[in-house]
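User: Hi! I have a protein structure encoded as tokens and I'd like to know what sequence might fold into it. I'm fairly new to this, so please keep things simple.
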């Protein structure tokens, strides 16, 4: 009896130990499972944090890109404004330059033209058929009476190959109409009368030769031109002048002489003229 009881008691003890082992195994697996869940939960939390940090970095990069793009656009606009301003300034400068050149050309043309496009005959040069046409071409005022605001006289001598050429009477005067220009001659003495209604107006030799219809340039008087053996020289009060003789200004009691002849010749050039009393 006693032996059977002990025999049957052992299996129960083994069964208990087996159950106890299973319980411990279950607890161990449960612990592992909890650790795995904890680890999994920790991983998910870390992933979310990393995701948030990435979005913040993306936002910062996007903001920097927008700022850079705005600056680039501003720089492009500034360059475009500069180019437009430069182009406009250049156009204005070019326009001003062209305008100035045309004005200079026009002034030069006006200064030369009253006599530069006139007749090319040989001396003596007679009074033109239309005695006022040349005055109009020279821009001289024409009226039925002499002006009294400005009144003075200049004298002109012409020497061609050592011979005096007469300046005709009634240059700038129409006896038929009774009209006259403010610059004219009354006789053939070479006295030029300036009797004008204007003040501070400039008168030149070009206007005289325009009225006379005789070409006058630095190299030509009428049909006489300069060459290797002939020269045209202008003198004012006996002093040799350079440049265009047509530009010589008429002033009170000035003595002007134009001399055409052989190169190297030394003509007697007057240095003054004795005006009649009262002129």
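Assistant: Happy to help. Inverse folding works backwards from shape to sequence: for each of the 279 positions I chose a residue that suits the local structure. Here it is:
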């Amino acid at each position: 009896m006693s032996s059977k009881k002990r025999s049957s008691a052992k299996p129960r003890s083994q069964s208990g130990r087996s159950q106890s082992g299973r319980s411990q195994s279950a607890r161990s697996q449960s612990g592992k499972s909890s650790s795995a869940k904890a680890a999994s939960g920790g991983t998910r939390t870390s992933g979310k944090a990393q995701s948030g940090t990435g979005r913040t970095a993306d936002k910062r990069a996007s903001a920097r890109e927008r700022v850079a793009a705005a600056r680039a656009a501003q720089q492009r606009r500034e360059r475009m404004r500069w180019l437009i301003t430069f182009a406009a300034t250049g156009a204005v400068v070019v326009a001003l330059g062209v305008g100035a050149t045309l004005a200079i050309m026009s002034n030069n043309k006006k200064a030369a033209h009253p006599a530069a496009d006139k007749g090319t005959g040989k001396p003596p040069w007679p009074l033109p058929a239309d005695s006022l046409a040349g005055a109009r071409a020279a821009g001289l005022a024409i009226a039925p009476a002499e002006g009294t605001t400005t009144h003075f006289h200049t004298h002109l001598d012409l020497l061609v190959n050592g011979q005096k050429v007469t300046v005709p009477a009634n240059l700038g005067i129409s006896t038929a109409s009774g009209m006259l220009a403010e610059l004219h001659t009354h006789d053939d003495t070479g006295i030029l009368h300036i009797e004008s209604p204007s003040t501070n107006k400039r008168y030149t030799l070009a206007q005289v030769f325009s009225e006379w219809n005789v070409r006058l340039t630095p190299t030509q008087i009428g049909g006489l031109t300069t060459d290797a053996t002939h020269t045209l020289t202008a003198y004012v009060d006996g002093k040799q002048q350079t440049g265009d003789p047509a530009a010589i200004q008429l002033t009170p009691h000035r003595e002007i002489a134009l001399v055409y002849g052989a190169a190297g010749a030394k003509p007697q050039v007057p240095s003054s003229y004795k005006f009649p009393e009262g002129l």
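A useful reference point when you look it over: The first helix runs from residue 2 to 116. Feel free to ask if any position seems puzzling.
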